[in-house]
Amino acid sequence: MSEPTAYHQQAPPVCPRHPDRVSYVRCQRCGRPTCPECQRSAAVGVQCVDCVKAQAASTPSATTVFGGRVSDRPVVTIGIIALCVAVWIGQQADSRLTSDIWFIPALGQDEPWRFITSAFAHSPGQVMHILFNMFALWLVGGQYLEPLLGHVRYAVLYLLCAIGGSVMLLLLAQPPSGPVLTWQDLGSWGTPAVGASGAVFGLFGALIVLNRKLGRSSAWMWATIVINAVLGFVVPNVAWQAHLGGFVTGVAVAFVLASTQERSRRRWQWPGLAAVAVLLVAAAVAKYAMAPDLGVTFALGG
Q1: Which long-range contacts (CB under 8 A, 24 or more apart) does 224-231 make?
Q2: Which residues, other chains included, contact 10 with Cβ-Cβ below 8 Å and sequence gap of 6+?
Q3: For the segment 22-41, what is each residue's pLDDT rounded down to a tens digit?
Q4: Closest Cα to residue 141, out of 230, 250, 227?
Q5: Tell me: the pLDDT tens digits for 227-261?
Q6: How far, in Å, are 25, 67, 176, 250, 255 from residue 267 at the CA level?
Q7: Which of 168, 172, 142 is nearest to 154 (CA)?
Q8: Where are the alpha helices (DSSP H) in the chain?
């Protein structure tokens, strides 16, 4: 007489990330069950979300020709524009904000943050000042240089050019040689400057160098630079010194990036950029070392 056969019923497969969900679909990579929420389309079948993350982590990210990470969204440029607009609105609300962040050679030694903050402020009474700078920044920076360099390298380029504009303004300013009784007696040593145009001119210079490295034409950029350079001498109250400083700094930064474009040389990119920053700081320190100590603190507008 035969005995009844015992049947062992196998438990249904469940998703490892969601044990309460039964799934008969398995990941093509690891073979584990994966529920609809954890499924990701693959070239053949589906993969689980864990395998997709592991594969992404092990795959080198795409880089630009100069070593930056590829991105189709100019977040740095958008951030700079947003900050400049916010500062400009703040200037409208409080007139003291302008004098708190503009750059003046006489104040730069004791308040060095002005070397960079002035690049995010604009003339509060001239809306075209900020509109032109932001338009140029978007076209040259957001649409061309940031995608070409990547976010980090582009941000360093912009900041160094902004500082370079202030440094050149300092270098070309003449310290007072006689008695100083009022703020006006400081002359160019006490002349304030604001605006992103120094940094924007730096982007102009960088574009020319990088385009030359890539074999691209920059004829249109040369025309833009010449027109704006002429306007700097024709239109009153334009800090052409900052334009010159930003342009020279942009050329220097771009030369470092272009010279280290090859993968085998990219380890020298950051030391090269650091060297540019050190040179800017050294130039400012040397200028202040040669300037006379006024020994007097003036109130702005006094």
Answers
A1: 225/201, 228/201
A2: none
A3: 888 888 888 888 888 888 88
A4: 250
A5: 877 776 666 677 889 999 999 999 999 999 999 98
A6: 46, 10, 45, 20, 15
A7: 142
A8: 49-58, 75-93, 96-101, 105-108, 114-117, 127-136, 146-149, 151-172, 197-214, 219-234, 240-259, 269-290
Q: Report the C-alpha gap between 11 and 166 in whole angstroms.
A: 72
Residue corresponding to tokens 């100590």: 293
Report the C-alpha gap between 302 and 296 in whole angstroms: 12
Residue 213 and residue 135 in contact, taking contact as beta carbons nearer than 8 Å: no
* Residue 17 in tokens: 């990330």
**40 contacts 48 by C-beta, under 8 angstroms:** yes
Residue with the bigger pLDDT between 78 and 57: it is 78
Its pTM stands at 0.77
Going by the DSSP 8-state scheme, the letter that residue 42 receives in this structure is -
- Beta carbons of 133 and 201 less than 8 angstroms apart: no
